[in-house]
């Protein structure tokens, strides 16, 4: 069942309309607590970058990762400041444009370097800048090939072959090397994540340079289906802690251990709520059509991701449904003018079904576990405005992003 009280969701949709994103702060705080053993928890904000969520993270002592000028600006608006704490914001990328170079210099933001060209650019513009090296360890793993960020098919990171060269450039220019970072993929599993920590020890030895920190990257899995097992965060920490100790022995001093989750902190804390506008059947499927599409929640269309869907019956609604059965297998789709706009599909685009009980036009559908890479991956496709975001804190809800308007969209073109 959804973590939210159905009556609260109904109230929220009455006040803010549908589709709407809803987040539960208690779940986010609980996920943060599960990683407290790490010296630094750095939120990969691309998973859910609303500044109110970032503020919550900051209040909890969580640091932040930014991957664009926009994400840096969001971090600053949320109150992160590297002048107060030099670890607050790190910029991670494989390239850096001119605007972003200025921002990282102005705000003393360490840069996590993913390519030799990016390294040269930073070195030439600001020779003593603080940097991390993001290494591609030669293997990776994610919930989809599209989220695997290691190995020969990945555009990310500095390869092991280039690592000695990168270290030489860092030393030549006098860049301030903070640490070595690795991110093997998103939605990985315990086995692959633990494989990465042994490789980290070898990489530090290969780099043959002094560092102050290592980062595990993100990739910590969240649970989407009943079969998914919770990550054993204690064992995960212990394995990385052992790797850290080996590195400390090798370098002869203390090393900080960072973890950089996105999904793990927010996925299970958020839902997308939409309204059913249409029920129709074809020879193969009973379709439910809702007012949210892949412009809102892209993951099913992009990766074949599963989000458990539930019906919330609207008490006032009594219109007859075309399909009379109580419990049916439905394909759930959106309003977009594109046949791939289906929330129930596998990674090959084959339409699947979910069992929904007594769904009627006017009822709400809740797409669970959509807090990570939900709102943050939304687009304006078909000129549909971005949906509002609402947060629930200690039983009270409040709007944290207004619904975008069509005039907002058109304003950019009023030339
Ligand atoms: N660090 C780096 C350098 C990353 O590239 C990412 C994710 C993370 C941390 C956080 O990964 P997480 O802990 O969330 O797995 N849109 C996809 C996920 C793409 C992730 C991209 N990078 C999805 O919806 O599954």
From TrEMBL:
The main enzyme category here is lyase
Task: Enumerate the UniProt keywords alphabetically.
Answer: Amino-acid biosynthesis, Decarboxylase, Lyase, Lysine biosynthesis, Pyridoxal phosphate
Active site location: 337 (proton donor)
Residue span(s) of domain Orn/DAP/Arg decarboxylase 2 C-terminal: 21-371
Required co-factor(s) are: pyridoxal 5'-phosphate
- Pfam families xref list: Orn_Arg_deC_N, Orn_DAP_Arg_deC
> Which sequence positions carry the modification called N6-(pyridoxal phosphate)lysine?
46
One of the GO BP terms on file = lysine biosynthetic process via diaminopimelate
Subunit structure as annotated in this protein's UniProt entry = Homodimer.
Keyword Transmembrane helix found: no
Chain ranges of the Orn/DAP/Arg decarboxylase 2 N-terminal domain:
31-267
Which lineage? Bacteria, Pseudomonadati, Pseudomonadota, Gammaproteobacteria, Oceanospirillales
Catalytic activity, per the record? meso-2,6-diaminopimelate + H(+) = L-lysine + CO2
* Pathway where it operates: Amino-acid biosynthesis; L-lysine biosynthesis via DAP pathway; L-lysine from DL-2,6-diaminopimelate: step 1/1
EC numbers for this chain = 4.1.1.20
Similarity-based family = Belongs to the Orn/Lys/Arg decarboxylase class-II family. LysA subfamily.
Q: Which domain of life is it from?
A: Bacteria
Provide the binding site for pyridoxal 5'-phosphate: 219, 260-263, 373
Protein name (database record): Diaminopimelate decarboxylase
Keyword Amino-acid biosynthesis present in the record's keywords: the answer is yes
Which residues are noted in the entry as substrate-binding?
263, 299, 303, 338, 373
- Its biological function? Specifically catalyzes the decarboxylation of meso-diaminopimelate (meso-DAP) to L-lysine.
Q: Which HAMAP family match?
A: LysA
Q: Which GO terms describe its molecular function?
A: diaminopimelate decarboxylase activity; pyridoxal phosphate binding
